[in-house]
Amino acid sequence: MWMDRMKHSQVGGILAIMGGFILHLTLGTLYCFGNMNTYMTSYLRTHVEGQEHKLYSDAIWIPTLATLGQGLFMTLSGHLEERIGVRMTILLGCTFMTSGVFLTYFTIQYSMALTTLTYGFMFGFGTALAYAPPMAVAMKWYPRKKGLVNGIIVGGFGMGAFIFNTVQTTYLNPLNHSPDADGYFSRRQNDILERVPSVFLLLGSIYGFMQLVAIMLISSPSEDDVASNIPLVTHSAVDDHDEDVLYQNEDLQDTADPSPISTATIQPEPDNLNVSPRQIVKTREFWILWFTFVLNTQSVGYINSMYKAFGQTFIKDDHFLAVVGAFAAVFNSGGRVFWGHMCDVFGYKMCMLLVTTLISILYSTLYFTEFGQRATFAIWIWAIFFSFCGNFVLLPTATALCFGTKNSSKNYGLVMTGSAAAAPIIAILTQWLSPIVGFLGMFIIISFFSAAAAVLTLFFPNCPSPKKILERLSRSPTSL
User: Fold this and answer.
1) pLDDT reading at 177 higher than 90
2) What is the CA 337 to chain-centroid distance, rounded?
3) Which of 56, 57, 267, 397 has the most crowded Cβ, counting Cβ within 10 A?
């Protein structure tokens, strides 16, 4: 009786969302790199032989390798789920990610290249395995609220930097020392720099504990739990394409009054209304989502790595810039919940048009915050984080809406290879073009990328569904 009540109240679903949120808090510390970059690059310049001429723009390869690892291997998590289960897949990913953080204690004392391998690639590979499974589980618990539950979970990814930016800065720079005139910390601030390697031991320990708690909370729904949320589809005789989706609930089962809708017209949505990974690459929806990821990743990667370096050109207050980054994480997190709810209400297409348009406008005007107050800079950074975070809830939700939830981890992994393709582009632009065109030139270039994504989104269907895609593929299986 008690277990039946637990299932009916869907406590397991709530715990799965909580676990996914906690897990993504640790994975989302990828967004801490903008804060850590100043300390890590300064440490390498002053304490590691042969690294004296390293620049902030050289360190862009650390988050680039993280994004590359995440994008290339996320599909692997879907295959591992089928073979070893959700929890073991997440545990394997967390092991790689946290081990990379621990190993950075050693690698940062040798070179930026080795640091890029541990804090970049290993971090990204682990994130790839652990990222999608919690969302797939949550969507099975709450199939009617895909956007909202995805938004809550990936909201943790955005919130991670709010917590850990503060942890990092408090540990490394408690007295709020500012860098030298060249923008780097020097041996005059050796008390700060000597703590850089050990901060990775602190962070790895915290991440590991939080991840173990999260894994214990995440569990897939039973067959009975899934059955209680099976969508029932009625087909209108007037228009076969109009669908009214009803959901089973206990009240409907217990009521003595017959349903006004004839049970003869109610049929469960077949399990095969899911598009396989092999099929999705033949659809135009997939390629629109993929290229949208490629174009919008430019704005994400650059601002995450360089916002603090840009702010330091006219703001000489390290703690203020750390606070800007911390509250950017709040907007990053809250924005994901907001965009997830908006997607449930207004659909993917309208929301993505808003996201891409906002990013383009904000980037094209960001440089001029230098001529305003410090608050102007903060507002623009927060607005950019609030806007770009929509990608990470809208794209997985659109993937599930288009192709179904059965293969959501694999399918979203394929979509996210777009971020892997995009990562080297922003790294090359930052390392080679940024010294020539400066911050203003980079902001304008990135604004054009997002504008192109907005134009591309205009070609996305208004009401995508696996049924429509499968019907189109059956008519023309080899063409888009």
Assistant:
1) no
2) 12
3) 397
